């Protein structure tokens, strides 16, 4: 019997060719790990090409999972375990592996052909030169999978496609994970293809049982996490965002109309919503990004919750229509799942460089609220919050997510629908003369829906006369309207909850401010810094425009402020233009999330 | 459709805004015909929405006492698509022009047509950019001298009707501002059609492109040059003196006195091939040896409409999966409990 070693947390990196099914293996390992009760965080990292040249370093697809019995906030820094299907995957990732870590390698992926494709010396198998401190499992995954499936009538190519299940089975054995969740996933996914289902199931089981056949090996156990008691599920960011939109529609008593044009990494939101038509969701795959946003403006004029999601290049195309929505003062939620830019940039990599675009990127004086989601599960709440602001303040809202949280997974202590607050759209009812641009105490105009007698009115992109909404070229009216629109957006901050630090003392030497997906990495860095006795606090901003009123007070309670962003310094410039403090930026622009150690190192440097 | 007992008149559809087109603009006539036709159609004001883009024609919604949106350049078709999708009971009209609908918004127009939402599109074609003061448009003729083409335009113009037939439009018609009776008839037919109706309206811009349509609208020329289409009737024109015949797919002009009424081309608005041939009566004016320009309904087809198909999918999903339960959705399929 192999010994079992208990570990508080483990980081595994799966890597292989982009046709090797790495994302599927990773997400299924995540699925069973979530059901095992661990806390976890994942990070899929794949090339923009669907099938990049096979066997090359450019074609390597990766999936990292960090799971533990302790709290997990990031997908982990350097992995403890590297699972590689070929030489290119090994070559790309080995230098990141923790010293003394585990390598699980598909021997068949290190033949001369694969070594050549990876640009390595064909006469030197790098597996032969791994220092002895590392633990190496050389497994002929291809051969063993073929052997396990020898009875099946599938072609060799199809059999080889089950290799990912073999290795997944082995890793599940090594870390004592149950196969049940994976088996039920496979039965559903391949219900129409019994041959393929059988191949996947057999390969998975063969991989698991392979563990029992090798000698003197250590298995590992990662106990359930001590998370807050409650009911949990596993959630991916884009899925949470879609859930949040359906929830917001229900909570506001409106129907959801979602229009989108396919774009990485936002398309999954369209996929998700189009599968939930029994919630009355109408999805519209538009002919382009502009059609997507103008269709939702039309839907919003008609009384639906109009939503579109896109990424940077699509946002650029939507800017004129955003200006129209600002002028029409109609509710709209526009989601930007950010990716590396500019232009086409890095479609499958993450970045936070569209903040300026969100806050400023329109012609004219065109302010609108901007909020950001901080984690996969937070995409759910952020989508509801964006919808609430849009509907209760009659304004387009930009919700910023990014490629990292969009595709990452974590356990989620999900709420009951009844625990979520209702959303109250500001509706107009026929009652004497209707003035389209008459406002309430929050400077919000009323939403008058076509079909209602007595509320007939015209809106448009030309400047509006105050209250009547008639076309006006009057100079003073224009100045007044520009200021009203600005104040209306500013007043949204009156309704925020008080701002609280994520962790750390209320006063101190260093305040770390982040926004969006850096939340987890900063949290770990600050926890470690506090443990080492540094006086640091973490503040994470959901609201990027307008800023919360109490932000000034918090900033002034610290000697210095470190602003952490996956861009070349955007929030820091917004903060500098509003607040006087000693700001320093920590910026990473590599298409990758921050590792907590990188932030901790900066903290130490600043407080040295 | 009317929800009101009260009988409405053209005046009831007119808003309190001053109409700001140039004096003598063809847009006035189109506005008047629309306001005249609506009481006859009995559509309640609150169920009407006019959606436009940018350009002279796009000011139209401001003058209608109905719901309306004056949106951004070229995007009225997609805006109207979203609106009609969420409220299929509305009667939605898109008012656009040759620049708005065929240049900056050409993409949205063709996609609206293929999807076939029940929306009426009126394209005011004046073959010029009016609001920007006189540049050539995508329908301006080759060689046209304008502010932006001082040596003559080198752009080959769109044939709007062939273009929309190519996009599988289910209702295609042509009318003119100077023929109000016919225009009203076409507006009514466009409204009756279930699906996207496309109506090209020749509209004279008396400031920047005066007389562009004279061969077809001028009293002295129009008889020889135009062909009024009536479903089921032979294609006779020139005051009954001339007619058209099809030799295979080749159209021929025949002298009625010589040829008699046998074997004449009888208009069948359900025939897409013949509709396309009619749409090609475009390249040459009759004075240049071309065919007479057809006015009326060139093509009309019954095809499923998008917003109904959209609703049907929802109904079917509810039928097979049951109405969505929010807690079930949030919970998902796999959960675990931490105690």
What would the keywords be for this entry?
heterodimer; A: 608 residues; alpha/beta; Pyruvate-ferredoxin Oxidoreductase, domain 3; Rossmann fold; 7-stranded mixed β-sheet; 6-stranded mixed β-sheet; 20 helices; 22 strands; 20% strand; B: 339 residues
Q: Would you kindly provide a written description of the structure presented here, covering whatever features stand out?
A:
The complex is a heterodimer of chains A (608) and B (339). Chain A has four domains: 3-221, Pyruvate-ferredoxin oxidoreductase, PFOR, domain III (Pyruvate-ferredoxin Oxidoreductase, domain 3); 233-419, Thiamin diphosphate (ThDP)-binding fold, Pyr/PP domains (Rossmann fold, 3-Layer(aba) Sandwich), CATH 3.40.50; 426-495, no CATH class; 508-607, Rossmann fold (3-Layer(aba) Sandwich), CATH 3.40.50. Chain A has 20 helices and 22 strands. In chain A, strand 18 (508-515), helix 17 (519-531) and strand 19 (536-541) form a beta-alpha-beta unit. Chain B has 339 residues and is an alpha/beta fold. In chain B, the strands form two sheets. Chain B has an eight-stranded mixed β-sheet with strand order 2-1-3-4-6-5-11-7, sandwiched between helices. A three-stranded antiparallel β-sheet of chain B has the order 8-9-10. Chain B starts with 26 loop residues before the first helix and ends with a strand. Chains A and B meet through helix 1, strand 9, helix 9, helix 11 and helix 12 of A and strand 2, helix 2, helix 4, helix 11 and helix 12 of B. Strand 9 of chain A pairs antiparallel with strand 12 of chain B, so a sheet runs across the interface.
